[in-house]
Amino acid sequence: MRSENQSEMQCVECEGLLAEAIDGGLHGTTLAAFEAHQQSCPACRTMVEEATAGLHWLKGLDEVEPPRHLVHNILAQTIGALPSEHAVVSPRGEGWLDKVKGRLAPIFAPVATPRFAMSFGMAFFSITLLLSIAGLHLSDLRRLDLSSKGIAKTYSSTQARVIRYYDNLRLVYEIESRVRDLRRVAAPEKQQPEEPAPKTQPKSDNQQDKNRTNQNYSRDANQPELAASPAGNEPGMKDLTNQARLNRRIA
Amino acid sequence: MDDIQAVNALVRRCVTGDAAAWQEIVQQYHRRIYNLCYRFSGSPDDAADLTQEVFIKMYRTLSTFDTTRASFMTWVTTVTRNLLVDHFRKGKYDRITDSLEATPGNQDDGLSLAEKLEDHSAGPEARMRSQEAQKLVHQALRKLSPELREAVILRDLQDMDYKDIALVLKVPEGTVKSRINRGRTELARLLQRSYRQVS
After folding, report:
1. Alpha carbon of A108 to those of A77, A91, B56, B58, B74: distances in Å?
2. What is the ipTM of this complex?
3. In CATH, what number is assigned to the domain containing residue B139?
4. Which of B30, B156, B181 comes nearest A74 by C-beta?
5. CB of B116 less than 8 A from some CB of A
6. Do residue B55 and residue A62 have CB atoms under 8 angstroms apart?
7. A87 band by pLDDT with thresholds 50, 70 and 90
8. Domain housing B192
9. What domain count does chain B have?
10. Which helix (H) or strand (E) is A82 found in, with range?
11. Is the pLDDT of residue A121 over 80?
């Protein structure tokens, strides 16, 4: 029988049944085969002993008590309510300050933790540092003019300051001067093919010719050129009057 | 069966917005979840933080609990375990690598862990009665790999059956048994090795 069990049960099977065997889940022939294998296999026997010892160590661990305010904190963070048995009850004879404290304590309980205090402190320190670097002081807030005119004035002065600052930036200035130089260099290159006849000059000549033409059209073709009047110029009113007198005397 | 139905009814009430039902759930399960977190993380402060996170997560996802798939206890354990694994992966709760020879925590009495284990009275159960021995086992438990640790915690400390553990860990039942065996064996070896070094 023993030899049969030995042949039936292998170390792998023994290991597979180990958990159930320790928990008392093996019965009948399976249990007999398991025990028989243990008798003959020292490795499996050691394994069973160690696993049993480990189980006993673990079973010896007691349940730990959760922190007192754990339930309160959980409820405050989920439904924002206090558990009935943890509700803060102010004893008789307490002053109003104690009552207020008693009521406020549970509300601020989630934030009244070292971790939150540390985070808040770090945030405050960072903001203060940034404000001081930016040149802002809390005392400046007193002098703030919050009227519409004051806000408009502040806005315009700030805008002007920003623009001035931007314009005075060395980088901006240099970029602008470079762009101007580039434009200056690029402009003649473009105009080179049309160099012989500048654009503006012919335009003015054409206009002069046009004016001249208009001038000719306005004058009568049979009208004699006056000796007194300068050639090509419009006669003035004075010259015209003198010419009329002369014509009358001749007549 | 009645308990399961009662819990399911409680969950249904909670989903409809019954604050009292939620309060009852918190009262009923916070101790178990805290213990699970404490044994896994090893720190009471971390366990408290993790327990709160578990309940916040539960509160937000309570409507996803399917009564036909698993019991509420299994669902709660799964939520807890997933959160613990997430935290472990983030590197927040790594394995403690200090030696059993090191003097533990605040108890500065000059005795090493192995010396404290040197108690020749009766068997392991008798030794466990002392608070000091519990600390030693707790520290040894933290030295196990997360896979083995969670398996033995769920089985031996939370008294879950193999089927539910397999559901929580999402591994076959055979793997669960193997991990439990290895976890128990490794824990015993860790404690015995230190004992032998002293004696």
Report:
1. 11, 20, 18, 23, 34
2. 0.75
3. 1.10.10.10
4. B30
5. no
6. no
7. very low
8. 113-198
9. 2
10. none
11. yes
